[in-house]
Each structure stands twice: as structure tokens, then as C-alpha cells.
Design brief:
Layout lengths: L1 E3 L2 E14 L2 E8 L4 H6 L15 E8 L2 E7 L3 E2 L5 E4 L17 E6 L3 E8 L5 E21 L8 E3 L3 E3 L9 E7 L9 E3 L3 E4 L5 E9 L1 H6 L1 H4 L4 E9 L3 E5 L4 E3 L2 E9 L2 E6 L4 E3 L1 E5 L2 E15 L6 E8 L4 E4 L5 E3 L1 E6 L2 E4 L1 E2 L2 E2 L3 E4 L6 E13 L9 E12 L2
Parallel strand pairs: 4-20
Antiparallel strand pairs: 1-2, 2-3, 2-34, 3-22, 4-5, 6-7, 7-16, 8-14, 8-15, 8-18, 9-10, 9-17, 10-13, 10-15, 10-16, 11-14, 12-13, 17-20, 18-19, 21-24, 23-24, 24-33, 25-32, 25-34, 26-27, 26-34, 28-29, 28-33, 30-31
């Protein structure tokens, strides 16, 4: 992670160029994202519109295929990459079983699988995220009193467990628990057995888990094509679970979600057509002139409207080709051409400040041309032989 001009950025790729008097050799070295660098992503907090009351709140940062938790409700990244959140089912607090018109009833899981659409804050592009309602648990804080001839057996379709699952229970407070498991693609529906309750008291939430299938979304071509942006959704998902009174009405318990995923700009690599580039030498008007050009492609995820890339160069010999004996040198100029615009990377023997390349045309890759030139009077080159320098091209993408 670099800190330049107070702008935090990630050193994404470095090209090391060995300049010779007759040819230029370029060796590519990729810099991997270190764990300490990845953890810094979680510091990038962001503000969204106000969350729905008692919503499951989830804030994530993604960088290439890395997911980092920023903040949220009891967030955990499981071994398969799925993100699990838990808001302790706070929205059920205060629910009275007889609110539906009867003190008898049962709890039903109607559906566990759904998806939400996240919208980019800057660009307005959208992406679909598969979601699963996970385990839900709450204490009715009301006592079981009696049973009926119907609904004495639990209904379980694809769930790990549903409680209460039988009517042969001692009197006491009843805890409702539906566990669909962590298989993100497996649906779970069903219902508890039915009781009549007494000593009705306000319910108390214990657990409500939500599973986000980040791996599937991030592997999709649609996600790969998205520009860096803050993708978010505030919504209420209905028809997932409800309390059904034996006589009277039912009560649906919507799932409020507040999800924000920041897709960071990143490099996947700096790609070269070859590691060897001929340096053409010509003699014009008593001058020795040299020229070399190499197309380079920066690949990753870039922001075509608001993003930018910084390019700079470093030289072992202060931008001069030096012969093997160290007794002769040839100063040179290095520049990059992007979108038909030429950017000098050095001024005589000193490096220029990093140039800013913006108005990026492609979200997936940035083509550029690296040019090296020199013109030196023949009278000033007194030593024959090979002249060389080590040139480092640095490409950086600032965090949005």
C-alpha cells in the first residue's frame, strides 16, 4: 500500500525494464495483495441512506476475488466464502401471540431462498445477489397449555430442524427455532406443531441469520463487467415466515435488509506481448538516435467515469543508458501513450510526478504504449559497447 500525495492506493503491478543499446529487455513482476493490505480495505467505511428499522445491516468491500467485512450485524465469512449476518431477530421483540386474534397457533417457514438487486451509487448499474434466510430463533415467552387433533406433527421440507416438533412437551415457555442449514442452494419450508398458549407475554428475538452468496455473484460474468462502485439495497422481503393463528388472522414477519458492497478498483496484472523489445538505432545529422515502443495492457476493474490510474517511472541510472564500464552514458526520454495522448514520465535525469490517466474507456482493461527515445551527438559517445539501464514502470489505482 502506497501513500502518495495523501492518496491511498495499491501498488498493483510493476514492470522492470532492462534497457540496452541494441535492445530492451522487459521483465514483469506482479505484486500480490498481502493479507495486511487486504485488511486495510475494511477501513473503507461508507455511508448509505438510513437503514430500515431493525434491518439486517451488512457492509462489505470486495477487491478482485477478496471479500472484506467492513461493518454490520454479527458478520462472519464462512469457509465457503458465504457471508452470514445476524440481527438477533430484534424486529419480533414485543410481538404478542394473541395479536392475531387467538392464543393458539403455529409458526411457519414459507420460503428460504430469494435474491435482491443491488444498484450502483455512481453509475446506476445493477447486480443480483442470491440470499438465503438462515436460522431463526425466538422465545414466545408464553406457556404451552394444550394441543389439538390437527397440526400435531411438524412439517419439514429441506430443513435441518424445526422446533417444536411434537406435542408431548411439558408445560413451559416455548422457543421457536427453524434451522435451514448453511447450504446456500437448499430451500427450507415447514411449520411447527400447534399449541394453545397461556400467560401471553411479549416475544423476544434470539437469532435471525441471513446468508449472502457472494462467491456465486462474484464469479458471474455480470459482476466481472461491473465498474467499481458502491452497490447497495434497502428493502423488505416478505412471505418468508409468519405466525398463523388457529382462529383469526396471521402475522407476516418481513426481513428488512440493508446491504452495501463496495467494489474496489483493482489490477489483475500488467500484460506484455513479449519480454524482449528491439531498440532501433539510426544515424541522422551526426546524431545517434534510438527508439523502442512496447504495447502494454493493464487489466483489472477500472472506473470508466470517475476512476483514474497513476503511472510513474523509476530508473537505476537516473534515466540514462550506461555502458558496462561505467565510462559512458546516453540520457533517454520515456513516455507512455494512452488514448492517443503522450505523457512524459521523466524530465531529463529526473522522474516526473506520477501522471493521472482518467476518462477510462474500458472497465476491464487499459491499453497503453510505452516509448523510449534518445538522440545523442555522435561526438559525445566515445566508448563502444552495450549501454543499459533498469527502468521500473509503476501503475497504481487509487481507491474510489
Amino acid at each position: 500500500m502506497n501513500q502518495r500525495s495523501a492518496l491511498p492506493s495499491l501498488l498493483a503491478d510493476v514492470g522492470r525494464i532492462n534497457l540496452l543499446g541494441t535492445k530492451m529487455l522487459l521483465h514483469k513482476k506482479s505484486t500480490a495483495l498481502l493479507p495486511t493490505q487486504a485488511r486495510l480495505l475494511c477501513l473503507l467505511l461508507f455511508a448509505l441512506q438510513a437503514s430500515p428499522l431493525a434491518a439486517v445491516r451488512i457492509r462489505l468491500n470486495t477487491f478482485n476475488d477478496v471479500v472484506q467485512i467492513a461493518t454490520g450485524d454479527n458478520l462472519v465469512q464462512m469457509s465457503d466464502g458465504v457471508i452470514r449476518g445476524d440481527d438477533n431477530y430484534s424486529s419480533i421483540n414485543g410481538f404478542m401471540l394473541d395479536d392475531v386474534g387467538d392464543t393458539a397457533g403455529r409458526y411457519l417457514r414459507d420460503n428460504s431462498l430469494f435474491s435482491v438487486t443491488l444498484t450502483g451509487y455512481q453509475h446506476g448499474q445493477t447486480i443480483t445477489l442470491p440470499v438465503k434466510l438462515g436460522r431463526t430463533t425466538f422465545n414466545t415467552r408464553s406457556s404451552r397449555y394444550s394441543t389439538f387433533a390437527e397440526h400435531t406433527t411438524v412439517v419439514n421440507n429441506g430443513c435441518v430442524s424445526i422446533q417444536p416438533d411434537n406435542v408431548n412437551l411439558y408445560a413451559g415457555e416455548q422457543t421457536i427455532d427453524i434451522d435451514p442449514g448453511n447450504d446456500i442452494s437448499r430451500n427450507c419450508t415447514g411449520s411447527t406443531v400447534e399449541f394453545r398458549y397461556t400467560n401471553i407475554r411479549p416475544a423476544q428475538g434470539i437469532r435471525r441469520e441471513v446468508l449472502l452468496d457472494l462467491p456465486s455473484m462474484m464469479r458471474s460474468e455480470a459482476y466481472q463487467q461491473l465498474p467499481p462502485d458502491l452497490y447497495w439495497v434497502n428493502t423488505n422481503i416478505t412471505n418468508l415466515e409468519h405466525w398463523q393463528g388457529r382462529v383469526g388472522a396471521s402475522r407476516d414477519f418481513p426481513l428488512p435488509l440493508d446491504i452495501g458492497i463496495r467494489k474496489q478498483a483493482y489490477f489483475t496484472g500488467l500484460f506484455l506481448p513479449s519480454t524482449t523489445l528491439p531498440l532501433k538505432i539510426s544515424y541522422v545529422d551526426q546524431q545517434i538516435r534510438g527508439y523502442a515502443a512496447m504495447p502494454i495492457t493493464l487489466r483489472g476493474a477500472f472506473d470508466p467515469q470517475f476512476g483514474r490510474v497513476r503511472l510513474s517511472a523509476q530508473s537505476s541510472n537516473r534515466f540514462a543508458l550506461v555502458n558496462d564500464s561505467g565510462s559512458g552514458e546516453i540520457p533517454y526520454q520515456v513516455a507512455t501513450v494512452v488514448n492517443q495522448r503522450r505523457y512524459p514520465l521523466n524530465n531529463n535525469r529526473s522522474a516526473n510526478a506520477p501522471i493521472i490517466v482518467d476518462n477510462l474507456n474500458d472497465v476491464r482493461q487499459i491499453p497503453l504504449m510505452l516509448e523510449v527515445t534518445f538522440a545523442q551527438p555522435r561526438s559525445q559517445i566515445n566508448v563502444a559497447g552495450s549501454y543499459r539501464d533498469n527502468l521500473t514502470l509503476i501503475a497504481e489505482v487509487p481507491f474510489i
